[in-house]
Design brief:
- One of its GO terms (molecular function) is fimbrial usher porin activity.
- It comes from Salmonella enterica subsp. arizonae.
- The protein has 195 residues and is an all-beta fold.
- It has two domains: 77 residues; 95 residues, Outer membrane usher protein FimD, plug domain (Immunoglobulin-like, Sandwich), CATH 2.60.40.
- The protein has no helices and 16 strands.
- It has a six-stranded antiparallel beta sheet with strand order 1-2-3-4-5-6, with no helix packed on it.
- The chain is elongated and about 105 Å long.
- The model has no long low-confidence stretch (mean pLDDT 89).
């Protein structure tokens, strides 16, 4: 809450913000304001509004509404990035001028750490939206939501990109099904280990 007073007017504003979701993917804010004039200008004005933003693995969706005594404004926005590369077209969050295109074949569902919700798509690609140029950057994939028949041979890599670069980061994967084999000797016993 905010309250201001001067010779000409008195004003107050109330606002609230919040977020929800595992990574605060949904955020919102609302506000309302009132101003009363003193010096011969009879009258008052009120304003109110709010916005809502949903971050997805493909970018952000926004909607906002603002209204005052003599105006009303509504807005709808979408932001994100599309990268065309030899492996196809990859969608992701809005990027800075230095970012990474990650390739991890078969790692669908792996989450890019510090990737603003970016997830490896079904073609094996994801976008890490921001890197620090000329510095060591750790690129890490969280495999907890990845397909169960694929395994990363290394979950983290380090890169040092130039300013304005789109760094390609490749993660090696192994795909297959786990098999459990039970072996018994002709007499029903377990075979000896290590021979």
């Amino acid at each position: 809450m905010n309250y201001n007073q001067s010779r000409q007017s008195r004003s107050s504003t109330v606002s609230m913000t919040g977020s929800s979701g595992e990574n605060s993917d949904l955020s919102w804010s609302v506000y309302g304001g009132y101003e009363r004039y003193r010096n011969g200008d009879s009258g008052a004005s009120t304003t109110f509004g709010g916005n809502l933003q949903q971050n997805t693995r493909f970018g952000a969706l926004r909607v906002n509404y603002d209204q005052g005594d003599n105006y009303r404004q509504e807005g709808l926005g979408v932001s994100g990035t599309l990268v065309l590369h030899p492996g196809g077209l990859t969608a992701g969050p809005y990027t800075s001028d230095t970012f990474a295109l990650i390739h991890a074949d078969g790692a669908q569902g792996a989450v890019v750490q510090n990737g603003q919700g970016a997830v490896v798509d079904h073609f094996g690609y994801a976008i890490l939206p921001s890197l620090s140029p000329y510095r060591v950057n750790n690129v890490t994939l969280d495999t907890r939501k990845m397909r169960s028949d694929t395994e990363l041979t290394g979950g983290s890599q380090q890169i040092v990109p130039y300013a304005g670069a789109i760094a390609r980061v490749n993660f090696a994967t192994i795909s297959g099904k786990a098999v459990l084999i039970s072996v018994k000797m002709p007499d029903g016993g377990i075979p000896p280990m290590g021979r």
